[in-house]
What we know:
Helix content: under 10%
Distance between the termini: 52 Å
Strand content: 35-45%
Shape: elongated
Order of helices and strands: EEEEEEEEEEEEEEEEEEEHH
Low-confidence stretches: 1-5, 11-15, 213-217
Mean pLDDT: 81
Radius of gyration: 25 Å
Number of helices: 2
Number of strands: 19
Strand order of the largest sheet: 3-2-6-7-10
Amino acid sequence: MTFASPFIYSVTPALAQLDESCKVTLNGxxxxxxxxxxxxxxxxxxxxxxxxxxxxxxxxxKTRYGRSGFFVQIxxxxxxxxxxLDMVWQDTPFLSTAAIKIVSDSTLLxxxxxxxxxxxxxxxxxxxxxxxxxxxxxxxxxTSNTNVVTVSxxxxxxxxxxxxxxxxxxxEGATAVTRLTVSPQASRPLWKALSYWQxxxxxxxxxxxFPAMAKSL
Length: 217
């Protein structure tokens, strides 16, 4: 995993949605907000993953809860600045993702170009579940080999080659993995699959196994 230089939230005080009464949490790190509404977080992973900021602000005996929209941390070897966070506020805590589960409608694809839907379910902080398959809910996908399987932002997996891959889903710091195999031979009748194996191995198979084919070799 690659980590970027610090993520920095900086905004003019007149526009600040955060102040020194707030604490923010981002990617598992919690820290105090400065007097100008700014904060700085180190070791935020780079890449396509989506992040959001959660805030708790207590002032004059009243607590309010904030949550930003999703954003991508892509800068490497330099500071990243966001001048405005699209914060939504309410009087009760926002639900957050505690863990995710990933399943595929099929774990075996038998043709190049065939597809299967990957589905991701989040276990939320109140123990309820939510479908977060789409990128719009903060889920991103990574395939261990795009020459075998690609995955869209909506979780649709497409076979592009032969082999086995691991598909990783990420959502607000939670991760889950599933395995997909692309094997066109799996769709052949048994006798065709055995014939393919015999041809591939030429004379290495004993003659009694495929007598008819053995005579033809």
